[in-house]
Design brief:
Blueprint (H helix, E strand, L loop, with lengths): L2 H9 L4 H8 L23 E5 L5 E6 L9 E8 L7 E9 L6 E6 L7 E8 L2 E2 L3 E4 L11 E6 L10 H7 L5 E4 L27 H11 L3 H9 L1 E4 L12 H6 L1 H14 L12 E5 L3 E5 L21 E2 L5 H5 L8 H16 L4 E6 L7 E4 L3 H6 L8 E3 L9 H14 L4 E5 L5 E7 L9 E8 L12 H10 L6 E5 L3 E8 L3 E9 L14 E9 L6 E4 L1
Parallel strand pairs: 1-11, 9-10, 10-11, 13-15, 15-18, 18-20
Antiparallel strand pairs: 1-2, 2-5, 3-4, 3-6, 6-7, 6-8, 9-22, 12-13, 14-17, 16-17, 19-20, 19-21, 22-23, 23-24, 24-25
Helix pairs in contact: 3-5, 4-7, 9-11
């Protein structure tokens, strides 16, 4: 969702002084100039690894000489020690103009559940050394699994102290929920703190240029080098709020966006369009990674055919809101997700987590489906009210009901949704039926903020009022923070899970400043086998 545009619109009508106080641009404060041209040394985009299996990891780098005249063979090594005294696997990969110099290999036949180190070499030049991990062996019981959860890292509107903090953590993986790049053209917008000087990404060269610019940031490169990533895309890797109609209307642009994502992300296979997949840490944690963009039905439209993101169900044909079969996942992915829950439960996997781009809990600005109203109006349709967004699962309520009802029917335990997209921290309960106030809780949702992309940071008292209002909404919103940037930390053990929200000041270029250091705002503790999530602030 284009929160940047929303914020711009929210500043309309303010006086100059009031606007200056909201956007935080003090007199004499200048935006930093565009970054200097990247060093076109052979490994200027750094290195990365990706979660794959108990015996394999994905390794990535980019060979970037000034001119890539032809294919270049790059060697790689995986070792059991950072000094590379014990090489456990090695091989070569090829970079060429066809893949923009990106080398991606599947390092296989590795020991399960191990911390490993890797590097690339070519013509006597070595890349930085990276650290990665294989998944535990099937059926094993790790003592714990620790994940960072991140999303939404708009380059121009913030710096990356969050990535510096994540790089220093002891983690098993980083789950990235999308909006790795923003397709927007660089601008001198009042919200910007560093100009990127880029054009809007619409074709393969411009999408590739975005990834190279983002990977020029040393903190992001450090996080990639420190931990394996499990990434998915959201909308801005292609275009804002895209859906199936966008794919049909802009097929060449979509193909370019997808190709660039697969070139620059540590995922396997090399060329494909399916990103939903699953990773399992023994019988402790099953992680489902979703794609809520390319298979979704077209967005809800208004009475005159206009596309609606925010709106009231009262002005819409109900068939659009709760139409049988209306899907955000597509039939194939939905069946895959639900069958995966069933299999994980049958395999006695303790925790089931879902990497989910957009909120599954509905944000009703005005709820018309209150019990008192339903008593007066028995014909009141389901899901009646004014919603903050139809771009999330609220625009696909039939499918959400299918999911929650099956989870309830099968007794799927310890299910949590890890969500990004909205540039805020939230926590809420996922109900079997969101239209029944006393419906059983079937899952928990943790919305883990943004690395740098703005929320309501500059809306002053309005942001605080909005946070307070959210906590009064049905069903069961427990926490909201619209003003801060940061990430989530998830720790799962056989008896307990916890989620922490860590925040940073992403507006200062001094990443050593006290405000840029991570601060724990809240911790959620969740005993296994219950829906009793406790909250500790600070």
């Amino acid at each position: 969702m284009d929160r940047r545009g929303l914020l711009r619109g929210g500043l309309v009508g303010l006086t100059g002084a009031a606007a200056a106080s909201l956007i935080g641009c003090a007199p004499g404060t200048a935006m930093l100039p565009p970054p200097e041209p990247m060093d076109l040394g052979p490994f200027s985009c750094g290195i990365a690894s990706g979660v794959h299996s108990d015996t394999a990891v994905v390794l990535w780098t980019r060979f970037a000489p000034a001119a890539l005249a032809g294919p270049v063979e790059v060697a790689w090594q995986v070792a059991s020690d950072p000094g590379f005294a014990q090489i456990v696997q090695s091989g070569t990969g090829t970079g060429s103009a066809q893949n923009d110099g990106c080398i991606k290999v599947l390092a296989d036949n590795l020991p399960a559940g191990q911390t490993l180190w890797y590097r690339f070499t070519v013509d006597g030049m070595s890349s930085p050394i990276g650290r990665t991990k294989t998944l535990p062996a099937p059926g094993s019981t790790p003592a714990s699994v620790r994940l960072a959860v991140a999303s939404c890292q708009n380059y121009s509107v913030g710096y990356y102290p969050a990535w510096r903090a994540i790089a220093s953590e002891d983690l098993d993986a980083v789950v990235f929920l999308g909006d790795y790049i923003y397709e927007y053209a660089g601008s001198a917008d009042a919200l910007d703190v560093r100009a990127d000087g880029s054009v809007e990404a619409t074709d393969l060269p411009s999408y590739r240029a975005k990834y190279k610019m983002y990977r020029s940031d040393p903190e992001l490169r450090a996080a990639h080098a420190a931990h394996p990533f499990a990434p998915v895309w959201d909308d801005h890797e292609f275009m804002n709020d895209y859906d199936r109609m966008s794919l049909l209307n802009f097929p060449e642009r979509a193909a370019a966006a997808y190709q660039a994502w697969f070139e620059y992300q540590p995922v396997w296979p090399i060329n494909a369009d399916q990103i939903y997949r699953r990773a399992r840490w023994g019988n402790l944690l099953d992680l489902s990674l979703l794609d809520t963009r390319q298979y979704r039905d077209p967005h809800i439209t208004g009475p005159n055919g206009e596309r609606l993101i925010v709106g009231s169900t009262a002005s819409l044909p109900l068939s659009q809101v709760h139409d049988v079969g209306r899907s955000i996942l597509g039939t194939k992915q939905r069946d895959w997700l639900l069958d995966g829950f069933s299999q994980a439960q049958a395999d006695a996997v303790t925790w089931k987590l879902v990497a989910n781009q957009v909120m599954i809990s509905p944000i009703r600005i005005l709820d018309l489906d209150e019990p008192a109203l339903r008593a007066l109006r028995p014909d009141l349709p389901k899901h009646a009210g004014i919603y903050a967004s139809f771009d999330d699962w609220s625009g696909y309520s039939w499918e959400r009901d299918q999911l929650t009802q099956r989870v309830a029917a099968e007794g799927i335990s310890n299910l949590g949704f890890l969500t990004g997209d909205i540039h805020a921290f939230w926590q809420s309960q996922v109900l079997r039926d969101f239209d029944e106030p006393f419906s059983p809780v079937v899952a928990q949702e943790f919305v883990c903020g943004s690395i740098s992309s703005k929320g309501l940071d500059y809306a002053g008292d309005f942001a605080q009022a909005a946070e307070a209002a959210v906590r009064t909404l049905r069903p069961g919103f427990r926490y909201a923070d619209f003003r801060r940037r940061g990430f989530g930390l998830v720790n799962c053990t056989p008896s307990h899970a916890s989620v922490e929200y860590r925040t940073v000041n992403a507006s200062t270029p001094d990443l050593t400043a006290p405000s840029a250091q991570p601060k724990r705002r809240v911790r959620f503790d969740w005993p296994a086998g219950t829906q009793k999530v406790s909250i500790t602030r600070g």
